[in-house]
Design brief:
Distance between the termini: 45 Å
Number of helices: 8
Radius of gyration: 18 Å
Helix content: 40-55%
Length: about 200
C-alpha cells in the first residue's frame, strides 16, 4: 500500500520571488523548495501565478521544473486588485474537492490574505505547508499552517554576490558595474511598483 503524501504546490510568484530579491543576500530559485518537498512526499501539481511579462528569465527556470504557469495579465488603466491571489485560492479549493488523493497543499507566499485559504484547506482535512521569505512574510500566516518554512533558511539557497564597497568618487561607477544578480535585486522595488500600479493597492 502506497502511503506517500501527494502534494499540490501553489506559488504566489510576485510575492515570493520579489520578496526574495528584496531580501539582502538572497536570490530566488525553485530547487531548494523542490528539495524540501521531496522529503515530504510526491509533488503531483505545480502551479505559479503572475503576470509573466515581468518575469522572462524566471519563466524558463520554472518551465524546466515542470511548473504550470498561470498567466494573469494586468491591463493598463484597469483595476484588477488581487486577481492572481483570487485565482490561486479558487484553484486550490477546487483541487481539494476534485482530487481527494492530494493530502498536502503547499502555499508559497508571505501574504496574510491567504490565511483564510489555509484555514479552509485545513477544514477540508488537508495538511498545509507554507513557504515565505522572512522579511516579507506576515506574522499571521505561519501560525495558520501545519508547517511553515522560511525560504532564506532552506538548504541550497545561494546568497547573491555581495558588492565590495567602493571608495571616493568612483563609487557610482563601481555600482554601475555590479554583477547582474545584484542589479536585478536593486530593480525589484521598481518592478513591484509597476505591477501594483496595474492591479491597485493590495
Amino acid at each position: 500500500m502506497d502511503h506517500e503524501d501527494r502534494i499540490a504546490l501553489f506559488i504566489d510568484y510576485e510575492n515570493l520571488a520579489l520578496g526574495a530579491r528584496d531580501s539582502p543576500g538572497v536570490n530566488f530559485d525553485l530547487k531548494p523548495i523542490s528539495d524540501a518537498l521531496a522529503e515530504r512526499g510526491r509533488v503531483v501539481v505545480r502551479r505559479a501565478y503572475a503576470d509573466w511579462s515581468y518575469f522572462d528569465e524566471d519563466r524558463r527556470m520554472l518551465t524546466r521544473s515542470h511548473v504550470e504557469l498561470i498567466e494573469m495579465p494586468q491591463r493598463m488603466g484597469a483595476s484588477r486588485k488581487n486577481a492572481a491571489d483570487i485565482k490561486m485560492a479558487v484553484d486550490a479549493i477546487e483541487l481539494a474537492f476534485v482530487r481527494d488523493y492530494i493530502s498536502t497543499f503547499v502555499v508559497c507566499t508571505g501574504d496574510s490574505d491567504f490565511t483564510p485559504l489555509v484555514h479552509k484547506l485545513r477544514e477540508l482535512n488537508k495538511r498545509v505547508i507554507g513557504f515565505g521569505v522572512r522579511d516579507s512574510t506576515s506574522a499571521m500566516l505561519p501560525p495558520a499552517c501545519d508547517e511553515f518554512l522560511f525560504y532564506d533558511n532552506l538548504e541550497g539557497v545561494e546568497p547573491m554576490p555581495v558588492e565590495a564597497p567602493n571608495r571616493g568618487r568612483n563609487s557610482k561607477r563601481g555600482r554601475s558595474q555590479a554583477p547582474k544578480s545584484a542589479a536585478s535585486t536593486q530593480g525589484a522595488p521598481q518592478v513591484r511598483a509597476s505591477i501594483r500600479a496595474g492591479v491597485g493597492a493590495s
